[in-house]
Structure formats: C-alpha cells, structure tokens
Amino acid sequence: MSAKTMAEVAMPSIVTVRARRDVPQERQCLRCETLFWSEGFGERICRRCKGLNAWRDAVPVSPGASRRR
Asked: Which domain holds residue 38?
C-alpha cells in the first residue's frame, strides 16, 4: 500500500482542457489598446492597466464611464 497524504486522497487530480483557440498569444488590451502577451483569451487587460488604482478599486475612470443597463 502506498503512503499518500490526506490531501492526495481527499482531492482527486483535476485535469482541465483548454478550448481549441485559447492559446497564449499577443493580444490588444481592452483598456489602453497596447499589445501585450496574454496566457489565454480570458486575459484581456495588460499588467500596466491592472496596476492602476481605477482597476484595483473597481472605480470607473470618470463618473459617466460605467455602463448602465
């Protein structure tokens, strides 16, 4: 019998499959429109923009900048 930790027994290994077109590539930032290296299609904001207070605090850039439904 092999000696497994409790975490290995309790948590089965989870394998995720990427979508066919979800590949790392250079993409355009949705905020500043500069090109940056993205790990997948879920990453669309560059590091510089994510470092801004407006992004981290989730505050619109200007009072009328938020989308209304």
From this structure: 20-59
